[in-house]
Amino acid sequence: MKKYGLSADERIKKKKDFDLIFSSGKFIFSSSKKLKALYVAEENKDEPGVKIAAVAGKKQGNAVWRNRTRRLIKESYRLNKEIFSSTCSEKKILLKIIFSPFSINQKKNKELSLEDIWSDIIEIMTKIKSRL
RNA sequence: AGUUCAGGCUGGGCAAUUGCCUCGAAGAAAUUCGGGGAGGAAAGUCCGAACUUCAUAGAACAGGGUGCCGGAUAACGUCCGGAGGCUCGAUAUUUCGGGUCAUGGAUAGUGCCACAGAAAAUAAACUUCCUCGAGGGAACUCGUGGUAAAGGUGAAACGGCAGGGUAAGAGCCUACCGCAGAAAUGGUAACAUUUCUGGUCCCGAUUUAGUCGGGAUCCCGGUUUUACCGGGACACGGCAAACCCCACCCGAAGCAAGGUCAAAUAAGGGAACUUUUCCGUAUUAUGCGGUAUAAAGUUGUUCGCUUUAAUCUGUGCCGCAAUUUUGUGGCAGAGAUGAGUUCCCGGGUAGACUGCUGGAUCCCGAUGGCAACAUCGGGACAAGAUAAAUAAUUGCCAUCCCGAUUUUAUCGGGAAACAGAAUUCGGCUUAUAAGCCUGAACUAUUU
RNA sequence: GUGGGCAUAGCUCAGUUGGUUAGAGUAUCAGGUUGUGGCCCUGAGGGUCGUGGGUUCAAAUCCCACUGCCCACC
Q1: Which pLDDT score, from 0 to 100, does residue A58 have?
Q2: What is the C-alpha separation between A64 and A87, in angstroms, rounded?
Q3: Residue among A32, A55, A51, A26 at smallest CA distance from A123
Q4: Which of A29, A44, A62, A69 is most deeply packed, by most CB within 10 A?
Q5: Out of 2.40.30.20, 3.30.70.1350, 3.50.50.60, 3.30.230.10, which CATH number does the structure's domain A11-131 have?
Q6: Distance, angstroms, CA A115 to C1' B412?
Q7: Distance from residue A54's CA to nucleotide B138's C1', rounded to whole Å
Q8: Residue A1: its pLDDT value, please?
Q9: Whole-model pTM above 0.80?
Q10: Which nucleotides of chain B are near protein (any atom < 7 Å from a CB)?
Q11: Is the CB of A78 under 7 A from strand B?
């Protein structure tokens, strides 16, 4: 597995997984309220690891803005995913997380850059890690 | 020269690092190497097609759409060319240029036209006007007829204006304009231009004159050509984006179409196996009672409790009854129905694959055409994802703006739109920073 | 991909066979009533009828295009 990669195995692809997380997941917000996250942790001894997805609601912006926001979230996760790499394999846990923007939208934050997202992603990831 | 508006074109480039999707090659695999990776609107989903399935013997109705004429096209509500209307500007009185138009039919029928006005659609009633008669001194009143000119309102008033004419008047007559019809010429056509729409006589109704109806002859046009028919006009206000009529077009649904494979599950079909053991009792009945075993249900679990272990038909042997047919009981073994279990078929859900990108394709040139476009020749292959890839960061160079130095360059800072493929094409509509091109309007300066 | 609906005063809604002041409730403001406030009574203001075109003598109403919101189906 690549150190800074984000292949298809590390993303949530199935509709059942999304239904599970949206129905029984736990919320976590960043301190600036820019982002929110839903996560589910389940025991899985065969394939421990982390799976993520990025979701942007339809009312928050048009297609270009939503795509860019999701790419920025995935990019900042990709460069920081070493936070989870050791703990999940030790505890035999499969962690599933959905990130999505919360208070930001296209009208307020038209030009979004990586620096706006970076610190919030790290904060959410460390919070989830401490709760496991 | 600037500003605004309308239309059109372009829609920053190169490199490095880290990633994603897809295709190809290598490898047992992890993975490695190489090729490719958003738009002019990908958008809105407003039209038209291709493609697929369903239904089909054909047609019509209903419903929907389109609407000046000709052409282009696979098709269109699109495009090109032309005609006409409206409008703006210039010129200066007739043309030129720009913009724009859902531009068939109001004599097929129905309906609507507020307020005001005499009247809003069969032209008639009312007021006024005029002749004649009666009354009266007169103003005037009443009756009889004539006429549709006047009524000033309205968005719109039943051709306009001028002259003649008359008792008053009227296309009643005349000139010009408008409208309508016919013919000729030009044009494929829409349409445009030009010309014509007249004269004489007789009879009847009514009358002051006119007018109306009928007829004859000359004239014009057509046909079936010694003949027949038609014509010689002022009638018909607007609205069809009101119903409607006419002409033309449309079968329905959509890639979540459709096809292939196929966990699960219901119905159905086929095959195999199972459908019990012991004891007692009775005989009209394979019955009844007990016991063990198995399965199912109940319960957190065990025990316990409840239910089920079926039904029918031949065959052979034995016992009993009777008259030989026969009846009845037991045992053995077989078949059928039902039930249960397992397997297979079938079915098609989740899921996977396919449809899936090479096509009415794009670029260049020649020929035909005013053009849209067509034909021919040469060349090119250019995203294919599915909770959905096409990205992030940095540097350099271009473009524009601001500031400083300074004199045409340098330094520093900043800006760069609208927007993301989802089966594929042809259009339309809408959004769009900056730069460039074309056109129109306005403003200023100079000559 | 397909189909349907809504937009009118600050708010909730009438009004759409086209017709001459676009109306009601509530809210706001002013006056009255009361010792004061509320309730109550009287009056006033407040509308580019979502935007832009067109048809018509006349458009909130009819037609076309656009914007925003909502709903349904496979």
Answers
A1: 80
A2: 36
A3: A32
A4: A69
A5: 3.30.230.10
A6: 25
A7: 112
A8: 54
A9: no
A10: 18-21, 31, 38, 351, 386-393, 419-421
A11: yes
| Token reading at A89 | 């394999």
Cα A57–Cα A97–Cα A90 angle in degrees, nearest 5: 170
Q: Each residue's pLDDT tens digit in chain A (132 positions)? A: 577 888 888 888 888 888 888 878 888 888 888 888 988 888 776 677 888 888 888 878 888 888 888 899 998 998 888 888 777 777 788 888 999 888 888 777 877 888 888 888 999 998 988 887
DSSP letter at A59 equals: G
* Cα separation of the two ends of chain A: 23
Establish whether the CB of A70 is closer than 7 Å to any nucleic acid atom in strand B. Answer: yes
The protein residue nearest nucleotide B38, judged by CA to C1', is A64
Closest CA to A50 of A118, A15, A98, A14: A98
